[in-house]
């Protein structure tokens, strides 16, 4: 079989087309302290400076060996754009949302006039352009964003789940607003060079909201993003944290190319639960990649590969203190696997 470039390989893998071997990629957060030390770009500055963001993202390729580059490293830039208060984090901790911005319909109207060129959203788009200009002909350029359900929760805060269960008018209005933003943001990422879009929607977990609420309040809005990307021939991957086993069939209805599952999901069961998407995952980011050894990584990788995982990678965002050697072993295991 013809040897593919990394860009061709991931394109084909996400569309279930024949490939020479498995791509070695990461769809979730990639940065580590060891990468920061190797490339000279550190958190928290790399969250808000496009050059530093691109440099640190590049280290995932040059230091670890991932056959793609991916930004950003957190899921708070979107909430910050809409007036949420953000704790900046530090060299080891990612930023987090500490203050919310929308309590009612009037508040929602106040955030409608936004610009994708503003704040860290604009920085992320600039970083994608930098990476695309340098690597876009050969490497996949992965743009990631928080999904509409979780973004709505960030914006609405502690009241979100109460509003959800009591059927308040703010719920569908905020979900429409967030998903429209997601589509516009994803299109901007593609215009700047992204060829794969990752949707991280942690609070849309089946464990938290169940199947009925997922179908009503998450599925249509995630699908809106996926449909927009399909029109551009851009692949999509959906990651939701926790044990999503019972919700995989519903997640598959979004039409995404890949479903990323965490370590609590049995890969063989997951593969048998979907018809369209490939299953991506699911090496434990804490017990195995952070606290384990390369031998532990190899054992966990073999288990996932033997179970039929579509793409071998981490089960959630990489912990910043993860040793380079462990990530390199995961990459080695992926690269050595032929379908």
From TrEMBL:
Cited InterPro entries: Methanogen_methyltrans, Methylcob_mtaseMtbA, Mtase_MtaA_CmuA, UROD/MetE-like_sf, Uroporphyrinogen_deCOase
GO molecular function: dimethylamine methyltransferase activity; metal ion binding; uroporphyrinogen decarboxylase activity
Domain Uroporphyrinogen decarboxylase (URO-D): 5-336
Gene Ontology biological process: methane biosynthetic process from dimethylamine; methylation; one-carbon metabolic process; porphyrin-containing compound biosynthetic process
CDD domains, per database record: Mta_CmuA_like
NCBIfam families: methylcob_mtaseMtbA, mtaA_cmuA, PRK06252.1
SUPFAM superfamilies the UniProt entry points to: UROD/MetE-like
Cofactor: Zn(2+)
Keyword Metal-binding tagged: yes
Protein name, per record: Methylcobalamin:coenzyme M methyltransferase
Presence of keyword Nucleus: no
Keyword annotations: Metal-binding, Methanogenesis, Methyltransferase, Transferase, Zinc
